[in-house]
Amino acid sequence: MDLRILLALAVLGLLIWIGSGVHRGPTPPPSAAPTITSIEFPEQIQADGQEVLGSVGFQDPDGDIIEVRFEVVQAILFEPFHFDPEAKGQRKGQFDFAVYTVIPQDIILRVALVDQAGHESPPVEFSFKALESLGNSP
Predict the structure, then answer these.
(1) Cα angle vertex 60, ends 56, 36, to 5°?
(2) Which domains, ranges and CATH numbers included, belong to the chain?
(3) Is 134 left (phi over 0), alpha (psi -120 to 50) or beta?
(4) pLDDT at residue 27 above 80?
């Protein structure tokens, strides 16, 4: 009789173990957030309304970046902006961005990348000076 009880307990334990999902193997690691590896942009631009190109270097283990955000840390007048860098499927690389202003000012921007799962990269700041253009003088 004791053997039957032990066997019943063993079967019950096995059923509980199977139902708990423990047997399904290791849990996959959570998605990793993207990382900004570099920001290339001139230290000075002209405040003449002409677009100036820069680039953001990145690494993303999942290759699923869907947005880059530029937040304003300091400026007299400058709008934050965001866009899809069209880097989906890329685990590392770079993409371009453009900024312009007509107001001479010192600008500090904070950049962050967002992936499909909503993970955000650690932000990186960069700064530049928009100089008065000769064409803006009275």
Answers:
(1) 30
(2) 35-131 (2.60.40.730)
(3) alpha
(4) no
